[in-house]
Amino acid sequence: MRIIKTKDYEEMSRKAANIIAAQVIAKPDCVLGLATGSTPIGTYKNLVAKYEAGDLDFSEVKTVNLDEYKGLTRENDQSYYYFMHDNLFNHVNIDLANTNLPDGTKEDADAECAAYEALIKSFGGADLQLLGLGHNGHIGFNEPDSHFPVATHCVDLQERTIEANKRFFASIDDVPKQAYTMGIGTIMSAKKILIVVSGEDKADTVAKAFFGPVTPEVPASILQLHADVVLVADEAALSKIPQ
Ligand code: F6R
What we know:
7 helices, binds fructose -6-phosphate, seven-stranded parallel beta sheet, three-stranded antiparallel beta sheet, 243 residues
């Protein structure tokens, strides 16, 4: 694993965007695996700026997102579909027909997850998968568990997550209780993995995930077994790694 240490969130975002840009320039029809959450927002802003400067062309790029809430429509501003359009797709020349997320409106979880997994397989996996890191070590919606879930699957969200999300919805009944997520095997099938982490509050998790034992109790720890991982993290997030 290669670690790129940055002084702050802005530099992390710039350097992560540079790695994604290099991928798109080297292979204009590459498959990008994308993530939502607060950490990659700055990375997407930098990619949009590179596009606006005329330095990046997304016209042949295909994308696959990590996850989506089950039951949310695309118009819902809490859906990951909405997030991706708002933060990236609407601002670059990507062909929307080439962008893919699990479809949260599909009721038949097994069918939707199997179809999404088959789509990613048909691409031969992502050329580059962008990841964020959860405080508990989760990647995608793969939460700490007794095993590593392999393929795209439906997860029951933890009570804590539902509680934390309720501020974004009119009532707790509107908060999604399930999500569709790539599995650990799906994520590991990417040729290259880029994980972005920022902030002191993730320092313990970074130390555990990348310097502790590989265990499904810390799902991101599996990334230690991937041949091409780049961790771009700021000083605060790296403050607890062994020197
Ligand atoms: C997002 C995702 C999540 C986030 C993680 C970190 O698609 O699957 O695993 O990457 O929860 O989120 P932030 O960046 O908001 O701390």
